[in-house]
Design a protein that fits this description.
single chain, DNA Polymerase III, Chain A, domain 2, Proliferating Cell Nuclear Antigen, 3 domains, 7 helices, cytoplasm
Length: 379
Amino acid sequence: MKFTINRNQFINQINNVQRAISSKTTIPILTGMKLVATQQGLIVTGSNVDISVQNLIAQDNEDNELEIASLGAIVLPARFFNEIIKKLPGEKFTLEIIENNQTLITSGNSEFTLNGLDANNYPHLPEVENNDQLTIAAEILHQLVNETVFSASTQENRPILTGLHLKITGNELLAVATDSHRLAQRKVTINNQSQNNYDIVIPAKSLVELVRSFRDSEQDVKISISENQILFEFAQTLFYSRLLEGNYPATDRLIPQESSTQLEFEAKTLLDSVERASLLAHAGRNNVVRLVIEKATKKATIYGNSPEVGTVEEDLQPLSLTGEDLEIAFNPDYLKDALRALGDTRLRLEFTAPLHPFTLKPTSDMENFIQLITPVRTF
């Protein structure tokens, strides 16, 4: 195998592949990056078992300045290979397999010899049929993940909760994440050409890496789903992820259908107040803030407290306040995450009781976007 390529183009196009490669793996060859020179171009692959990413650097794209002198394949140690390419002096570099999987990398006056591995020993990528594909805009998928995935659990004692639950019914996509203390739920409309229904759970970590890979928000992402794998296709990239096994808990019953107290705020204004209150709450052991709502005075007050440091009290200015008096305590970090996900919008907080979960919804889209937070018992 021998090829020459524009160095900067190569670096830009292997970024996605690099995300899939872990330095900690029980399969040593997976610490490497697989390079295959074909008639179409250079295929670069990385995998860590959970996710696999394959990128085609096309030969017919003039920007790549790719010239393939001979076909072949090699697996190179990803960390060293990446660092070498970044520090080469020339605008282009040439890579050539010389003997016994030894690889010669030259650019300008620099020359590196890197020990590679036989590409035939690299695990095969999963097989996912693409007869029935869903299509979703990268921008919508990116937004969907950012609005929900932070609520997924990071604890492995309930593996199913470390994923994002996706239910696809017709052209409706419902995404839910929960760690049992909070929940994020979002509905969007997609182009489900197959009209098949799906009920799957994708690891949250996979989706975070996926949306980081998007460079063009206007591109479409094609999705193919098999029994235990999902494939995302966009630009010249194939992104595979395993699916989590098991039944996701029924979360519909967790969302209150009625409320006794309602407040409306601008999300940014409320976020600023919660951040101030949490400054002292973080200094305490329990990391809790209190919200006191008074019907008679139409006033809401937020309190933060740390016995070692001090207290903070701030009167809030809700845009509207209706319903009963209420005093509730909660983790301010959960509320801050929910508010950041809601973005720059007007929102409604709905409460039922001091020890019952409360919800946040944008007033412009209350049916399709819900954040739920479980309060903390302070007595």
